[in-house]
UniProtKB/TrEMBL annotation:
PANTHER family: TESTICULAR SOLUBLE ADENYLYL CYCLASE (PTHR16305), TRANSCRIPTIONAL ACTIVATOR DOMAIN (PTHR16305:SF35). SMART domains: HTH_LUXR. It comes from Streptomyces fimbriatus. Keywords: ATP-binding, Nucleotide-binding. This is AAA family ATPase. Residues 852-917 form the HTH luxR-type domain. InterPro entries: AAA_16, P-loop_NTPase, Sig_transdc_resp-reg_C-effctor, TPR-like_helical_dom_sf, Tscrpt_reg_LuxR_C, WH-like_DNA-bd_sf. CDD domains: LuxR_C_like.
């Protein structure tokens, strides 16, 4: 596509020269095929809509416009339908899963739309639409987007870099827009005083008292809409009157209300009906007006007053007009408007919107309306609209006359609200349920307690949340033993997460509670076996727990039935696999659940699972793959609204020997650990520092770094921390510190009986052994680690053996071993350990020159992933589906990859050495 220079031919908005230049540059990049996303953020009336209108008139682009509506924010995919409705003719060009997701979202077929496939479908739909002409998508009032649409558009917005497609969102500050976090922003401030005076003078040409004018300027604070509306609020006869003091935009809304008061009653009722009807369909408004006995001609005074326009669509001048109209109406008039709208809304085509209007028309509890809302919630959930389902369920609970049924619906609504992240709303609904529950309804009271506990841990992962989960589990035991065990596993995971910041022996308390549970059903669930093993591990020690943990891990590994497990269960199963030194099970468990999450679009679980898989890549010496997953983890965490996952970043930097990056990341991570009470993050940070300092040969510092986590000896770190501690203590001459930890390590490794366990135990024991026995231990360690997936540990065993051989004066053998260690450590990117091997080689009489990786072989994390997949024979479409990109973006990356690698075909990628840039 030719990249013609964009030359603005439009008048620049008053006082917005800088903003206009930014938008022109953004449009020019889009025309050149390098689209992207931009968020225009500012308070109501600041000029966001005017800037969107400025962009809409740009030549050489096709423009689509969407407006969020407050009353439609609970209807899943409403905004997405506005945007994509005109492009459905190209639906058949999309891959089957993407087409199916879009059809399900728009109600064209049954089923639940996969979130990732839906995001890809929208991305590819926009890409197809931009084939002939760059596409500009303008989204006004994005704070009112329904959550399902906002998530999909946010997904797309982060993947437009190589598409001639631009997404521009206008968001009212400080409302909403959470899904758009981290996108480029253009923040609008108030106009400068000179521009404000110019705008005011252009609207009010009569003489005006200087003090009146200056007060208007001061109150408006540069807000353009306020400058236009505030003069109308005062009776400016001759321009000599003082408007009421009220800050914008409150005064702006007051201005609209005062203008409503002068309109005929029928006009106000018609405006109210339009405000309650978010679609803006004139025929629907006309039919509702007829039911209300209002002549459609009553709209004329409102149009004359500049409050709204009626043409192809009904549009208010500003969202504040809609708000002012709705809020100014009496409850009776609001119910009448919604009742009329419910009557004229097609029950077959739009049952959910009709149910919502009926609920807003209800003057009190109404079981028929509540039941209809409940059915709508089911349809919304099936289409992926959890936020819509939660809103319907919340309203259904409010309108339910029977207390018992109201309590049940409130609990269902609370669970849905929790799923959407609306913690306060969830707790309010739990309180409603508890108020309406009968005194003997133990199961429901236990369910309410469980919800409170889980919301508590969602909001703040502290010791109190662990106690709440534990208490909820004990309460649930009396009526639902299976549910109680699920809560105990959550409590176990929470206690591991809190770790050192717990205010008591929480792990032991959870383990005791699990041990005291009634016998499990026969056959037991995988969850029950895992919980039993974890409880035994805490109560009786690692060796006693190995048989149960081994069984739980093996069963989870073999359960290839497509089942998805709760995140807590997968997390604890992976932790158990690591504590058992079972690297194959750890990798398989993570891979399978990642595959299922990708297939079903479970974004919330992916960041944690990808982090586990990235750690497995580090263990296997696959730093490039780990870096690529770290990059993807952060991207998906933003898409999913999940907290940032920083565990792998600091570990990867340490293994790479990057002291500056490790130090910076470790400082941030440790501060976050203390602020949030995340003991697990503190353990990871200490482990990373120990790895770094062992690599650098600064053993005293490594010993100090590893000691706190080693003393705590918490689950999930049995296979990591002791190994680093023993090496640091042995090399620092602190045999007294190393021996007790070595004893613990030996007992556990021998109970585990895996090659990884045997290898690191032998390697660690060799560090504390003299003479020929040490030689034998090192050699056997290398054999055992060669049977595992732990490439980094194998390379370090070779390094330690070579160092020992050199000190023993066996220089020829030392050079052979050190050379192998150096080559392996260099190839995987463990630069500090490689440098340590190079120093030892030099001391043994052999100088080495570190091979410099060819610059053209250094790929970004995303390029690395694409190259690896294409090298296996995957097509661009297949790669795009796997990595949640568009085929066009994949092809653009491939061109960059070919240039960097100096190749011309996909086939040439096979067998090439690929390196990920450190900036990953």
């Amino acid at each position: 596509m030719p990249a013609n220079r964009f030359v603005p031919r439009r008048p620049v908005l008053l006082g917005r020269r800088h903003e206009s230049d930014v938008l022109d540059q953004f449009l020019h990049r889009t025309q050149a095929g390098r689209g992207g996303a931009l968020v225009i953020r500012g308070e109501a009336g600041i000029g966001k809509t005017a800037l969107l209108e400025y962009m809409r008139t740009a030549p050489g682009v096709r423009t689509l416009r969407v407006s969020g509506a407050e009353f439609e924010s609970e209807l899943a995919f409403a905004a997405l339908h506005q945007l994509c409705g005109s492009m459905l003719s190209v639906l058949q060009r999309l891959p089957g899963p993407q087409r199916g997701a879009l059809e399900a979202a728009f109600g064209l077929s049954s089923g639940t739309p996969d979130r990732f496939h839906l995001g890809l479908a929208v991305l590819n739909l926009l890409s197809e639409a931009a084939d002939e002409q760059p596409l500009l998508c303008l989204v006004d009032d994005a704070q009112w987007l329904d959550r399902a649409s906002a998530q999909a558009l946010s997904f797309v917005a982060r993947r437009l870099h190589d598409e001639p497609v631009a997404l521009v969102f206008a968001v009212r500050a400080p409302l909403g827009g959470a899904e758009l976090t981290d996108l480029p922003e253009l923040r609008l401030e108030g106009l400068a005083d000179a521009d404000a005076r110019g705008l005011l003078a252009s609207q009010f040409r009569a003489p005006m008292d200087r003090q009146v004018r200056e007060r208007i300027i001061a109150e408006a604070r540069g807000n353009p809409l306020a400058l236009l509306e505030l003069p109308r609020t005062a009776e400016l006869a001759g321009g000599f009157a003082v408007p009421e003091a009220a800050p914008a935009p409150g005064s702006v809304e007051a201005s609209f209300r005062s203008r409503l008061e002068g309109l005929p009653a029928d006009t106000r009722l018609l405006l109210l009906t339009a405000a309650a009807e978010p679609i803006g369909e004139p025929s629907l408004l006309r039919r509702a007006a007829e039911l209300l006995g209002v002549d459609p001609a009553a709209v004329t005074p409102a149009e004359d007053a500049g409050l709204l326009t009626v043409s192809a669509w009904v549009r208010f001048r500003h969202p504040l007009v809609r708000s002012a109209v709705y809020r100014a109406a009496s409850p009776e008039d609001r119910r009448a408007a919604h009742r009329a709208l419910a009557e004229v809304t097609d029950a077959d085509a739009q049952p959910d919107r009709r149910a919502w209007h009926r609920s807003m028309a209800a003057a009190g509890p109404d079981e028929g309306v509540a039941a209809a809302l409940e059915h709508s919630a089911g349809r919304a959930r099936a289409r992926g609209g959890i936020a819509a389902a939660a809103a319907f369920l919340e309203r259904a609970a409010t309108l339910t006359p029977d207390p018992g049924r109201r309590a049940v619906r409130a609990l269902v609504a609370a669970r849905a609200k929790r799923d959407t992240g609306a913690a306060e709303a969830a707790l309010t609904l739990v309180a409603m349920a508890e108020t309406n529950l009968g005194p003997d309804d133990e199961p429901r009271r236990a369910e309410a307690a469980a919800l409170r506990a889980r919301v508590s841990f969602d909001r703040k992962r502290d010791d109190e949340a662990v106690l709440r989960l534990l208490r909820a589990a004990k309460l649930t035991t009396r009526c639902d033993a299976a549910g109680a065990r699920e809560l105990l596993l959550d409590a176990f995971a929470a206690a591991v997460f809190v770790g050192r910041f717990a205010k008591g022996p929480r792990l032991l308390e959870v383990a005791d509670a699990a041990h005291a549970m009634p016998p499990v059903e026969d056959p037991p669930r995988l969850l029950d076996i895992l919980l039993g093993g974890l409880a035994t591990q805490v109560r009786e020690g690692y060796t006693a727990a190995v048989p149960q943990l081994r069984r739980a891990v093996d069963l989870h590994r073999r359960a290839d039935d497509g089942s998805e497990y709760g995140l807590g269960e997968v997390w604890m199963a992976c932790n158990a696999a690591m504590d058992l030194w079972d690297d194959a099970a750890w990798r398989v468990l993570a891979d399978r659940q990642i595959s299922l999450c990708r297939q079903h679009g479970a974004l919330a679980s992916l960041p944690v699972l990808l982090s586990f898989r990235a750690l497995a890549h580090i263990h296997a010496g696959e730093f490039g793959d780990a870096a690529a997953l770290v990059d993807e983890t952060h991207s998906i965490a933003v898409d999913a609204g999940a907290p940032p996952v920083v565990y792998v970043d600091v570990s990867l930097a340490a293994w790479r020997g990057d002291e500056a990056t490790t130090a910076a990341l470790a400082d941030v991570a440790m501060r976050a650990a203390h602020e949030r009470g995340e003991g697990r993050l503190a353990n990871v940070t200490e482990y990373a520092r120990a790895v770094l300092y062992n690599g650098l040969g600064r053993y005293e510092e490594a010993l100090q770094a590893a000691r706190p986590a080693c003393d705590l000896d918490e689950p999930g770190f049995y296979s990591w921390i002791p190994v680093e501690f023993v090496e640091a203590a042995a090399r620092a001459g602190r045999r007294d510190l190393a021996l007790p930890v070595m004893k613990r390590l030996s007992e556990r490794a021998r109970a585990s009986r895996t090659p990884w366990a045997a290898g690191v135990e032998l390697r660690s024991r060799a560090l504390l052994t003299d003479g020929p026995a040490a030689d034998e231990l090192y050699q056997e360690a290398i054999v055992q680690l060669g049977r595992s997936e732990g490439t980094v540990h194998l390379a370090r065993a070779r390094l330690l053996h070579g160092e020992w051989l050199r000190r023993e004066g066996r220089l020829s053998e030392a050079r052979t071993r050190l050379r192998a260690a150096y080559e392996q450590l260099s190839s995987i990117g463990a630069e500090a350990f490689a440098a340590r091997a190079a120093r030892e080689l030099a001391a043994a009489g052999e100088q080495v020159r570190k091979p410099k990786a060819e610059a053209q072989h250094r790929l970004t994390p995303q390029e690395f992933q694409i190259a690896r997949l294409v090298a296996t024979g995957a097509t661009s479409k297949e790669v795009a589906t796997q990595l949640f990109l568009s085929p066009r973006t994949v092809d653009t990356h491939l061109r960059n990859i070919f240039k960097k690698l100096d190749i011309t075909s996909r086939r040439q990628l096979r067998g090439l050495p690929l390196v990920v840039t450190r900036t990953a």
